[in-house]
Write a structure and sequence with these properties.
- By secondary structure, the chain is of the alpha/beta class.
- It has one domain: Rossmann fold (3-Layer(aba) Sandwich), CATH 3.40.50.150.
- Helix 1 runs parallel beside helix 3 and helix 4 crosses helix 6.
- The chain is globular.
- About 40% of the residues are buried.
Length: about 200
């Protein structure tokens, strides 16, 4: 799918993303993960700002998304939560930052949509400071044979409708990127993963 079509899909979903921030399960997962953020934060695919209620005080956020409709809602959320945040509307896979720019990099439910998810993880390694933290909440293939069979069967349709792949091996991609996984928690038949990691080359 070309990028412009993908952007239109997410523009149309912006209002739904805004409402979904109240989902109790996702709120628990986000709160557990985002509380570990500190310092200068890069949040990729910020969406409608669903993570914003859970950032600790004092962080400075650079938030990016390719959907202007999402950015508009995220800006309002940042204002509500009194966050120090700057926004970039750009295709994230084309973005560039100097190496070792951020103390924390956050990505939640975004690896499903990238054309090159491994390439994005490699970039996160590059942009994160050597002693920094990478926080991921991502979904992919589950551990149940019946569920994964259904995921594979429905994936082409779901991607066309929502711009989201459901068949990616998230833990495998993170390991392949060279990130140093510190801790993981998995939910919903291992379809959803919370991952606390350090950049490639970090000594544990």
């Amino acid at each position: 799918m070309d990028t412009e079509k993908l952007i239109r899909i997410f523009d149309r979903q912006a209002a739904d993303y805004d409402r979904r921030r109240e989902d109790p399960k996702q709120r628990r997962w986000r709160q557990k993960l985002i509380g570990s953020a500190q310092g200068d934060v890069l949040e990729l695919a910020v969406g409608a700002g669903a993570n914003f209620p859970f950032y600790p005080q004092g962080v400075r956020i650079t938030a990016a998304d390719f959907s202007s409709a999402m950015i508009e809602r995220a800006e309002k959320a940042a204002h509500r939560h009194c966050l120090d945040a700057d926004f970039i509307c750009s295709d994230i896979e084309d973005m560039s930052f100097p190496a070792q720019s951020f103390d924390t990099i956050v990505s939640t439910l975004s690896l499903c949509s990238y054309k090159d998810p491994l390439g994005m993880l490699v970039q996160m390694n590059r942009w994160c400071k050597p002693d920094g933290t990478i926080l991921l909440m991502e979904h992919g293939l589950g551990s149940s044979f019946l569920v994964t069979t259904l995921q594979r069967a429905l994936n082409p349709l779901l991607y066309r409708i929502y711009g989201c792949h459901h068949t990616r091996d998230i833990i495998g991609l993170v390991r392949e990127s060279g990130m140093q996984i510190r801790r993981t928690e998995s939910f919903s038949l291992n379809m959803v993963h919370l991952i606390w990691a350090g950049p490639q080359g970090q000594q544990l």
